[in-house]
Design goal:
Number of helices: 25
Strand content: 5-15%
Shape: elongated
Helix content: 25-40%
Strand order of the largest sheet: 11-10-12-13-15-14-20
Largest sheet: 7 strands, mixed
Oligomer: single chain
Mean pLDDT: 96
């Protein structure tokens, strides 16, 4: 770790008069756009405003030290001046403010100041604070992976590019900030952190947010991290520091963090009133540091510019903003129906025939388990596509490569990834920290740069630290950027009960939490063959996929199958009729499929009742036509699932059947599911809580008798 707190004079010599005047112009332009948006908001012509006022100096300095469309940028909402200096125009910013169809940031889908510009490598920003850190780490990690993988010929990285990521001081309280620093320094990634410290997170002052009141003092122990501190209201000093930090990163010495002290002369946003918690003296002290006011006076005092030159800049800025505002206000809004576009990839449809080779398997070898066929699929796909990376907790055979010749290898808690590291190397198969948000956040950044992460969350029960990244980031990136960016990662996760001893924290089955998220594909195979074909589709499609693997099904003998070959695929949204019947239909998935088959066999043998069983396989999208076709034939339907009965996955299926198939129904839609409790440890508790064969058989008899 290296620290500098007193910048030298080099930047002042490096910046010409034209440079200095342009920096002032951009600072002023940023401030005046804020002012114009505030005016428009008060006129009810835009709907939200949050400013970058007080942060302009360090941001124009950052843009001058960095390279648009060469480096990659993960800004936050105060970074208006940075985006202007990188090449975004006032018109483009005001198109965002009015929610215009031509807004390059999001096509009117996000609030203003949520920056995104594909041509400039500004990756679409979301509202949650701190989620950008791990994605930026993944984006920087892409350089490391591409550099080490000779099998990839066309590499979209350079030997000296870097990733910029910024946030306010309050955001450093988020755990993902510390996870990001840990991985960035551990891997010596080319990433520049800029912390813009204006002393407040809305109304919460920095000393309440940060132990000791200084984040730069806290992070100095990270190995290889260059830490710099600067007056962010001084553009010349800021340029010196940021240039030095960026060169450190470009030379691949490690990451850098610049802690810039800035001001916030306006309230947090127009939804906030800082007068309620900041006294006049504090606000007056900030005003005296304001770079937009102080910098032109300094240029005049030092003979760099004249009063006339400053006035010309001011006049041109006002003219530019007036024209930009007129253009933005006259621009058409998005068509209402365009809201349906780009939830998923418009180019690759995993529900299409392109992904349906199910009727032509090329079987070879003896029947084997779901674990083995998942492993086989990963091996086949990694051999086919060198962009695929596999990482997560314990997925490698051994992180210490020198031990590989002495041990059998871990390969995941359930052995799904066993042998992959030995076959494809430690740069494609590697262990992550024990941090679920870290796994998914890095996967998003890697996927944004063209790699194909297939990551593992060890247990569904522990997926919740990653939920922020899954729901607010992974699933939304394509839609919120209006198809400018995407992150087609695959997140594998084990789930479910029926294992004896799993208890509360190793038996959860909350699929409904994720099927309710637009933009995320969710699949759940019940057999080894289906697992192989669905995982291959998940890897080859262009959408983010949550791939649920039921622990109970991993090594069951009843669902074994031979290897179907390296091109076997099952499209999403294609259910499978696993038992034909005439009298009633069971719609189910996962571990309940086999229990439904056993119960159906009992009914036929004991009662002469013919039960049809539909295995959904894909939970989002769902094969509604297959369900409806069966219900139109049998006229009675039972929905069986492992989630809790109330508010569970089957509730939506039941509701839609009642809505769309009511005229074919001869009985109410019936459900069998887990009790509205957690799963207990004692075997008798677990058996009572989870749906069993006898529960299913009883419900089938009641339904048939209705």
């Amino acid at each position: 770790m290296a620290t500098r707190t007193h910048p030298g004079p080099r930047a002042a010599k490096a910046l010409s008069k034209a440079d200095l005047l342009d920096m002032y112009r951009l600072m002023l332009l940023s401030r005046r756009i804020d002012d114009k948006e505030i005016q428009l908001k008060r006129q009810n012509k835009i709907y939200f405003q949050i400013s970058g006022a007080g942060h302009e100096a360090v941001l124009v300095a950052a843009a001058r030290a960095l390279r648009p469309a060469y480096d990659w940028f993960y800004p936050y909402y105060r970074d208006r001046a940075l985006c202007l200096a990188l090449g975004m125009t006032p018109t483009e910013m005001l198109l965002s403010a009015v929610g215009a169809a031509d807004d390059p940031n999001s096509g009117g889908r996000q609030m203003p100041s949520h920056w995104g510009h594909k041509a400039l490598h500004i990756v679409s920003q979301s509202s949650p604070t701190g989620t950008q850190f791990l994605q930026a780490v993944g984006c920087a990690e892409a350089w490391l992976r591409y550099a080490r993988l000779d099998t990839i010929a066309d590499k979209p990285t350079r030997t000296d590019d870097l990733v910029y990521v910024s946030a306010g001081d309050g955001t450093t309280s988020e755990g993902e900030f510390w996870e990001a620093l840990n991985s960035a320094t551990n891997l010596k990634l080319p990433i520049l952190f800029l912390i813009e410290d204006n002393g407040y997170a809305i109304s919460v002052p920095v000393e309440v947010q940060t132990a000791g009141g200084s984040v730069s003092r806290l992070v100095k122990a990270f190995p290889g991290l260059l830490v710099e501190e600067v007056d962010g209201c001084d553009p010349v000093a800021s340029y010196d520091v940021l240039l030095r930090a960026s060169e450190y990163v470009r030379q691949r010495k490690g990451p850098a963090l610049v802690h810039a002290h800035v001001i916030r002369p306006y309230s947090h946003s127009l939804s906030d009133d800082e007068v309620l918690y900041r006294p006049p003296k504090e606000r007056d002290d900030d005003a005296r540091r304001d770079g937009v006011q102080a910098f032109p006076k300094r240029l005049i005092a030092e003979g760099v510019a004249t009063d006339a030159e400053i006035e010309v800049i001011k006049r041109h800025v006002e003219e530019e903003i007036a024209v930009a505002a007129d253009m933005a206000l006259a621009s058409p809004q998005p068509k209402a129906e365009s809201a349906l576009l780009y939830v998923y990839s418009p180019d690759v449809d995993p529900t299409s025939e392109q992904f349906d080779t199910e009727d032509d398997p090329q079987f070879g070898g003896d029947p084997t388990t779901m674990v083995d066929l998942l492993n086989t699929c990963l091996k086949d796909e990694m051999a086919r596509d060198p962009r695929i990376l596999v990482f997560g907790e314990d997925v490698a055979d051994a992180s210490r490569e020198q031990y590989l010749g002495q041990v059998k290898g871990k390969g995941g808690v359930f052995k799904v990834t066993w042998g992959l590291q030995r076959q494809f190397g430690s740069d494609r198969v590697y262990n992550s920290p024990l941090a679920e948000a870290n796994i998914v956040g890095r996967a998003i950044g890697l996927a944004t740069r063209g790699l194909k992460p297939v990551v593992e969350i060890q247990f569904f029960d522990y997926i919740w630290p990653a939920y922020h990244q899954l729901r607010n980031e992974l699933a939304t990136l394509r839609w919120r950027s209006n198809n400018a960016f995407s992150c087609p990662a695959v997140v594998r996760v084990t789930y479910g009960g029926y294992l004896k001893g799993g208890s509360i924290y190793h038996s959860q089955t909350g699929a409904v939490v994720f099927t309710a998220v637009p933009g995320l594909r969710v699949v759940c195979p019940s057999s080894a063959l289906d697992a192989n074909g669905l995982l291959r589709t998940a890897i080859r499609c262009d959408d983010p996929v949550l791939f649920l693997e039921h622990k109970h099904l991993y090594r069951q003998t009843y669902n074994k199958a031979p290897n179907p070959g390296p091109n076997f695929m099952i499209p999403f949204g294609k259910a499978k009729r696993v038992r034909e019947g005439r009298h009633l239909t069971v719609v189910t998935y996962g571990a309940v499929v086999q229990r439904s088959l056993v119960a159906a066999k009992q009914l036929e043998e004991q009662d002469g009742v013919s039960v049809e069983v539909i295995d959904l396989r894909s939970l989002s999208p769902v094969d509604w036509e297959a369900i409806a076709r069966s219900v139109r034939k049998t006229n009675k339907v039972l929905v069986a699932y492992e989630d809790s009965l109330s508010w569970g996955y089957g509730a939506e299926i039941a509701a839609r059947l009642a809505d769309e198939c009511f005229s074919w129904l001869d009985a109410p839609v019936k459900r069998v599911a887990s009790t509205d409790t957690f799963v207990g440890y004692a075997p008798d508790l677990e058996d009572f809580i989870l749906p069993q064969v006898e529960d299913l058989a009883r419900a089938m008899r009641e339904l048939h008798a209705f």
